[in-house]
Design a protein that fits this description.
The longest helix has 17 residues, at 82-98. It is built from 4 helices and 7 strands; from the N terminus they run ββαββαββαβα. It has one domain (2-175). It has helices at residues 26-39, 82-98, 147-163, 172-175; strands spanning 2-6, 19-23, 43-53, 56-68, 106-110, 129-137, 166-167. The radius of gyration is 17 Å and the shape is globular. By secondary structure, it is an alpha+beta fold. Strands 5-6-4-3-7 form a 5-stranded mixed beta sheet. It has a two-stranded antiparallel ribbon with strand order 1-2.
């Protein structure tokens, strides 16, 4: 049995919320996640993660940023609204699914929910909820990017493409 965790609108102590959705097969979970990608028009971008040591800047990893927007017709979209929390929950389920399952020399950090909306000209100024996945060294945080981090990023991008997520801006044609 494959588990996909989705944070739903019910509040938990500490500001989070969680609802478990159990999938009986990877095909069902793939279908569910593909639906989330379409519903929230999920896009992704990659940014370098830098560290300054001894006065020199060095790339030590990557930040994979997922963005999604509440469904068209959603009433009252604002920072921290229920619709935005649902988008974040969907992004979190997608992030959980794309992460490598075996332990590697790299590690992955999924960012906390931020009660903020971001607007980008690239995505037609839609109200975006974001989720950040950092890809870093498991040991030696100051080491430069290596093949393991690059491989992990490429696998995550491939999984996002399988789900129909679009790089930078949403296009239904690319998502299908």
């Amino acid at each position: 049995m494959h588990e996909v965790y989705v944070r739903g609108p019910a509040e938990e102590p500490g500001g989070g919320c969680q609802q478990e959705v159990f999938m009986t097969s990877s095909e069902e979970s793939l279908s569910y996640l593909t639906d989330l990608v379409r519903r929230y028009q999920v896009c992704w971008e990659v940014w370098p993660e830098y560290l300054v040591a001894n006065g020199k800047e060095r790339q030590v990893g990557f930040e994979l940023e997922l963005t999604g927007t509440p469904e068209p017709g959603t009433n009252h979209v604002g920072p921290g609204c229920p619709a935005c929390r649902q988008v974040y929950a969907g992004l979190h389920a997608i992030a959980d699914w794309i992460l490598p399952k075996e332990e590697r020399l790299s590690m992955y950090e999924i960012g906390q929910y931020e009660q903020a909306l971001r607007y980008s000209f690239v995505r037609a100024m839609r109200p975006d909820v974001t989720l950040s996945v950092k890809i870093l060294h498991r040991r030696g945080f100051d080491l430069p990017v290596d093949q393991c981090e690059q491989r992990c990023l490429e696998e995550m991008k491939q999984h996002l493409n399988e789900l129909g997520a679009c790089q930078r801006h949403w296009s239904l044609r690319k998502a299908v």
